[in-house]
Amino acid sequence: MPLTVRPINPRRDDFVAEAAGIDIAAGVSRETAVQIETAMDRYAVLVIPGQDITDDQQYAFSQHFGPMETATGDLPRLEERRLSMDINDISNLDRDGAVLARDDRRRLFGLGNMLWHTDSSFKPTPAKYSLLSARVIPEEGGNTEFADMRAAWDELDPKLQAECMGLVAEHSQLYSRGSLGFVDFTDDERLKWAPVPQRLVRRHPGSGRLCLYLASHAGAIQGWPVPEARMFLKDLTEHATQREFVYSHRWRPYDLVMWDNRAVMHRARRYDHTKHRDMHRTTVADSAPTLAQPL
Ligand code: OGA
Ligand code: MN
Question: Quick one: pLDDT at residue 234?
Fold first, then answer.
């Protein structure tokens, strides 16, 4: 079956599409992968329904799009992990498949996914694509929302655009989690997640479009007083996440959703924490730190 792609977002026709005619479990050709990347350059978020896949199949599919990240941004120690280091565990489950207690440290850390963010901007080379596979979803709640950072840039006041251009923000999971009052990091975690610099405005290579590069991980701007930087980042985030820029995804079991972290922010929405939600994420790394990429 040939690949077909159709826009599904009533608010904008160049943001979020659904793909059909792909069987990830069976493997896709190089040619199909190129078509998918072309669609990603246009739509930034691609929903691929009906993909009942294993972690290995998800990983093999993801590898078409670049070098893979390992899950070094996850909190659980190796011996506590439920999934391999190739898979980000986006669930509320422990190794035995039981729902984490309300006050479990892993759960509280995971709540950070409910803040608007882009994946791995706290790593020197951040993420290009994330691919999230819904294995078990709660009956209600737990949508994932996506905000279009290209449109947010295009519709930003030109004076603000000029002010943003050339700024460098510092990103760390210590900032995003800290903003929720999660501050009991170990010395190792503090070292591992020391802030890294990222451009505030970047050019998306596949589309040529400029994008705001924001995330809850951003907690400082180089050369600015911290409170002023955080207030500025909050204002920009408020602008960038207005409803007109946002698509909310209601999950069905075996949806695979892939998004371009260079062009969108995303966040998880609340759900009943006593219900199972099991999502597996593979992550494709970007080509270089944003400061090493052409603007
Ligand atoms: C992620 C993420 C949001 C969600 O997988 O990177 O932020 O809805 N997920 O689980
Ligand atoms: Mn995320």
Answer: 98
Q: Which residues of 209-245 are buried (b: 16+ CB within 10 A; e: fewer)?
A: bbbbbbbbbbbbbeebeeeebbebbeebbebbbeeeb
Q: What does the alpha-carbon distance between residue 234 and residue 219 come to, in Å, rounded to a whole number?
A: 10
C-alpha closest to that of 157 among 212, 221, 205, 206: 212
Q: How many CB atoms lie within 10 A of CB 260?
A: 27
User: Nearest-CA neighbor of 135 among 81, 90, 68, 104?
Assistant: 90
Q: Which residues lie below 8 Å from residue 9, measured CB to CB, with a gap of 6+?
A: 15, 16, 247
pLDDT in the model for residue 32: 97
Return the structure tokens found at 166.
């050339």
**How far is the C-alpha of 249 from the C-alpha of 46, rounded, in Å?**
11
The answer to whether 282 touches 173, Cβ cutoff 8 Å, is: no
Contacts of 38 (CB under 8 A, 6+ apart): 206
Q: Domains of the chain by range and CATH? A: 4-292 (3.60.130.10)
Model-level pTM? 0.98
Give the residue whose CA is nearest to atom 8 of ligand 1. Answer: 268
Structure tokens that stand for 6 in this block: 């159709």
- Which segments in the chain show pLDDT lower than 50? none
Ligand 2 centroid, distance to 1 Cα (angstroms)? 31
**Ligand 2 centroid – CA 118 distance (Å):** 6
Ligand 1 atom nearest 144 alpha carbon: 8
169 Cα: distance to centroid of ligand 2 (angstroms):
18
pLDDT of residue 77: 87
- Residue with the nearest Cα to atom 3 of ligand 1? 268
The atom of ligand 1 lying closest to the CA of 281 is 5
Q: Distance between CA atoms of 225 and 222, rounded to whole angstroms?
A: 9
